[in-house]
Amino acid sequence: MKLSRYYIPTLKEAPSEAEVVSHKLLIRAGMIRKLTSGIYNYLPLGLRSVNKVANIVRREMDRAGALEVLMPSVQPADLWQETGRWDYYGKELLRFNDRHGRDYCLGPTHEEVITDLVRGEVRSYKQLPLNLYQVQTKFRDEIRPRFGLMRGREFIMKDAYSFDRDEAGAEESYWIMFEAYKKAFARIGLRFKPVQADSGAIGGDFSHEFMVLADTGEDTIASCSACDFAANLEKAKVVESGEVCEDACAELEEVATPDKHTVEEVCEFLGVDPAALVKTLLFVVDGEPVAALVRGDREINDAKLRNLLGGNEIDMADEAMVRELTGAPVGFAGPHGLKKGVRIVADNELRYATDWIAGGNKADTHVRHLSLSRDCEVEQYADLRVITESDPCPECGAAIEFTKGIEVGHVFKLGTKYSEKMGATFLDENGKDQTMIMGCYGIGISRIVASAIEQNHDENGCIFPPSIAPFEVCLISLGGKDEAVNEKALELYEAVQDMDVDICYDDRKERPGVKFADADLIGYPMQLVLGGKGLKNGIVEAKDRKSGERIELPLDGFAEAFA
Ligand code: ATP
Ligand code: MG
Ligand code: MG
Ligand code: MG
């Protein structure tokens, strides 16, 4: 590709709304442009990287035996009503009507559509197992679209769905995908970690997320320094501001235990083993810990709570009584909820309680300044996070470390959650109707491009891993009007293309400084630089973008030296 005929609108400055480095650089490097909030155009360079990610993922899916299909992005409401998710999914689901007034949504995920497809096609055990995937545009009306491609409203996802005859088969399908994900992320060149995860709105039996390790990640990974335990402190929704909960927070502060400033202190106060730290949530309002949620045994916890509330007898299952005692100004989403002070929840209540605190599906309830923090360092507008119900603490009891991660992939064992509701059955060997066991597997294709930049950049720009760089090599001619240099450069350009290397040729009539700055900004892994002096001495300079190292390659016998 000759850059004189290419379109790369690089910019000196990023728009002020761009907070994280990948967002800034994707815009400055001329790879994406915003259409509207959370919705982007992919320009030629950006699309090349996106396609490279998608193709690596496709290859690993194909190798793992998954078959590519393409499903519609417009989905009829009746399918979502069948599974109950039409009501459950909340405002992230963009809904609309056709001219006949029928309800539709833009697909945020495709469990309903794929289950509908498969139930209509697959009749016999002989057709299973089956794994179908697609690379497709998803729409989620994210409450806070931000960070460019990292959290868009429209984004590109690879989603795969497996159908099996029995549990054993479903587990096998799950681990095949798990391994394929590891291969794909390794081939892309990401530093990543699989972690135990919450299955969230997708639901199901168990799941893992694949986290790209980066400080700007929105997820927090709790991992053990000694064993291989790693889990996501799954976040709940965060809303920017609101009156309702500010009142609630004021209430909370009154009965909070402000003298307990660390999770350890709260644990001690509650008589909870600090080794269960990752199961403890501390809510911080304006620098003060105002409430803690601790997982554990209901009975013991309720006794502790009574203690906390001044010895009052209280049945936590009795919402009215809790309200009366605590004078809570807002309702709660869960069966047993926190009102104020320290509320201790049993495992299966944790999600409800955190949902309540974060507003849950009640979009009008707002929460401010909530943070889980090991040592109460307040992160403004920090996410509320919760460890999932199924996570063990690490068995070994060693210290937990918290690191930031970006979720680039997620595998779920769904079980029969969808197939049962939608009647996706098959006839087994004995001619008996059986329900298919499902799994689903997502990869954030467009998010990966942003994550790769978060992990690989410096003050001059992106440093793309070769596998997903828009071009692997950029040849820069410093010839200007010197036709001999330009001719030689063109020769090199052809030679490199013959070697099947993805190269672009900066033949623009720009100053060398502009070409170097652009090449650094875009982050081609290698720059080849040919000037008048080099031509005279018979050398072309090769610069490694990552290390900055420069070596000279002979023009004579270039192909061998370059290889
Ligand atoms: P998150 O926790 O970041 O909101 P999610 O858990 O809701 O993501 P999944 O339903 O697991 O997302 O979807 C599969 C993958 O799609 C995610 O692992 C992520 O890489 C990607 N993805 C999800 N939401 C977005 C988004 N808003 N923008 C870009 N990629 C996304
Ligand atoms: Mg999400
Ligand atoms: Mg998630
Ligand atoms: Mg997920």
Automatic annotation (TrEMBL):
Function, as annotated: Catalyzes the attachment of proline to tRNA(Pro) in a two-step reaction: proline is first activated by ATP to form Pro-AMP and then transferred to the acceptor end of tRNA(Pro). As ProRS can inadvertently accommodate and process non-cognate amino acids such as alanine and cysteine, to avoid such errors it has two additional distinct editing activities against alanine. One activity is designated as 'pretransfer' editing and involves the tRNA(Pro)-independent hydrolysis of activated Ala-AMP.
Listed GO CC annotations: cytosol
Gene: proS
Subcellular location: Cytoplasm
Any GO molecular function: ATP binding
Quaternary structure note: Homodimer.
Keywords attached to this entry: Aminoacyl-tRNA synthetase, ATP-binding, Cytoplasm, Ligase, Nucleotide-binding, Protein biosynthesis
One of the GO BP terms on file: prolyl-tRNA aminoacylation
Keyword check for ATP-binding: yes
Domain notes: Consists of three domains: the N-terminal catalytic domain, the editing domain and the C-terminal anticodon-binding domain.
PROSITE patterns on file: AA_TRNA_LIGASE_II
HAMAP family with a match to the protein in the record: Pro_tRNA_synth_type1
Known EC number: 6.1.1.15
Domain Aminoacyl-transfer RNA synthetases class-II family profile: 38-465
Gene3D superfamilies: Anticodon-binding domain, Bira Bifunctional Protein, Domain 2
Catalytic activity line of the entry: tRNA(Pro) + L-proline + ATP = L-prolyl-tRNA(Pro) + AMP + diphosphate
Protein name: Proline--tRNA ligase
Family membership: Belongs to the class-II aminoacyl-tRNA synthetase family. ProS type 1 subfamily.
